[in-house]
Amino acid sequence: QVQLVESGGGLVQAGGSMRLSCAASGRTFRTHAMGWFRQAPGKEREFVAAISWIGGSTYYADSVKGRFTISRDNAKNTLYLQMNSLKPEDTAVYYCAAGRGGVYDYWGQGTQVTVSS
């Protein structure tokens, strides 16, 4: 079992930066790939970024590539998403997730990110 709790969301102006954190409990965190997803009002949840369980491989949606960076600290059981050059279209509820084999089994409750223009 993995429990996930996101933090770090809030309101930021366009062009600003924000870092999201996802604290995980459960010893299996270190054996799971981790990902960030987001859902804007009226839209479906979409993939943002993912990182392999050992942290050697990262993947990004085209819309955030070059602006967002995903990382993890397995010693602290924490996942991060550094978001730079934020745009109003980045406004969404951001979720972290854990999984294996491309299937995400565990989800956090989400944290709101609002980017004002």
Could you walk me through the main structural features you see in this protein, from its secondary elements to its overall organization?
With 117 residues, this protein is mostly beta strands. The protein is built from no helices and eleven strands. It has strands spanning 3-7, 10-13, 18-25, 33-39, 46-51, 58-60, 68-73, 78-83, 92-100, 103-107, 111-116. Strands 2, 4, 5, 6, 9, 10 and 11 form a seven-stranded mixed beta sheet that branches. It has a four-stranded antiparallel beta sheet with strand order 1-3-8-7, with no helix packed on it. The radius of gyration is 13 Å and the shape is globular. It starts with a strand and ends with a strand.
Q: What are its keywords?
A:
about 120 residues; mainly beta; 7-stranded mixed sheet
Offer a quick outline of the entry:
Helices cover 0% and strands 56% of the residues.
Radius of gyration from the alpha-carbon trace, in angstroms: 13 Å
Number of strands: 11
Low-confidence runs of at least 5 consecutive residues: none
Topology order in helix (H) and strand (E) letters: EEEEEEEEEEE
Profile the largest sheet: 7 strands, mixed
The general outline is globular
Task: Provide the fold topology.
Blueprint: E1 3-7, E2 10-13, E3 18-25, E4 33-39, E5 46-51, E6 58-60, E7 68-73, E8 78-83, E9 92-100, E10 103-107, E11 111-116
Parallel strand pairs: 2-11
Antiparallel strand pairs: 1-3, 3-8, 4-5, 4-9, 5-6, 7-8, 9-10, 9-11
